Amino acid sequence: MDKTHTKLFRRVLIQLPFYLLALTMIFPYYWMTIGAFKPSNEVVKYPPTFVIEHPTLANYYNPSKSTVSGGLPGLFQYFESVPLRFGTFFLNSVIISSSITILSLIVASAAAYVLAKHDLPEGHVMFLAILASMMIPWQVTLIPNFLLVKSLGWLNTYWGYIIPALPKAFAVFFLRQYMLSLPDDLLDAARIDGASEIRIWWQIILPLVKPALAAMTIFIILNEWNNFVWPLIVAQKDNMATLTVAISRLLTGFPGADRQGVLMAASLLASIPTVIVFLVFQKHFIKGIALTGLKS
Predict the structure, then answer these.
(1) Could you read off the pLDDT of 95-119 as tens digits, one per residue?
(2) Is residue 24 part of a domain?
(3) Do 22 and 141 have their domain in common?
(4) Domain CATH code at residue 236
(5) How many domains does the chain have?
(6) Average pLDDT of the chain, as a whole number
(7) pTM for the whole thing?
(8) Is 106 left (phi over 0), alpha (psi -120 to 50) or beta?
(9) Residue environment code for 46-82, b if the CB has 16+ CB neighbours within 10 A, otherwise e
């Protein structure tokens, strides 16, 4: 074996564990995808099949409710009473997740700018307090947040979803570490030209930290899109429920193994926006992770 083949063999051998790890993460998604287009009797078939033998859209909409689909209503038929349609839950998740992501990044970037580029006497103490808040389990704040939201009359409203989720300690920490790598001379030049601090933050800082913002966008939107406990508590009316709550109702409304196709169809639709977000921000995400923390 020559040196070229030896080098190639070593590279494949080194990368093999990573390929196996990727396979373990991709396979469940593949199983969910094909299960969303299988009839119920094929989903529970033993031994299982890893290809679709009889493709069907009955898991989404089943006009005939035939025995092939198990006599079940499809996903869009299950939520057929107005306003309880699947699109309502989907729209709620989009509005809530996008609003929290945008507003929390604005708040976190402003706080990170102050902590990173302003020599405040109490700045170090404030930063330590923000880091300390990351050590508090979210379960501890669940009841106080609920009582506060209830007293403000924000139950079954978007405010009850969005406002308590805006403070993101990790986002402040992450963006601060990135901003520390930016040269102070650039900001001093802007101040000499008469730019205000808000203008510096908006027109200079934010464009320079786009990779870090993209990385945090993926983290935040994935977390909020898949959030279940808080929406379950806040949304006591069905028309304010999110996708995660709706899918959990499918679990209780569709008991039995023959309902797995409908559940996989709902899960597949729920996963598509997060996949799109990651693909859009993937390049900036990798760059932001690589550059953050170069300066402390």
Answers:
(1) 999 999 999 999 999 999 999 988 8
(2) yes
(3) no
(4) 1.10.3720.10
(5) 2
(6) 84
(7) 0.83
(8) alpha
(9) eeeeeeeeeebebbbebeeeeeebbebbbbbbbbeee
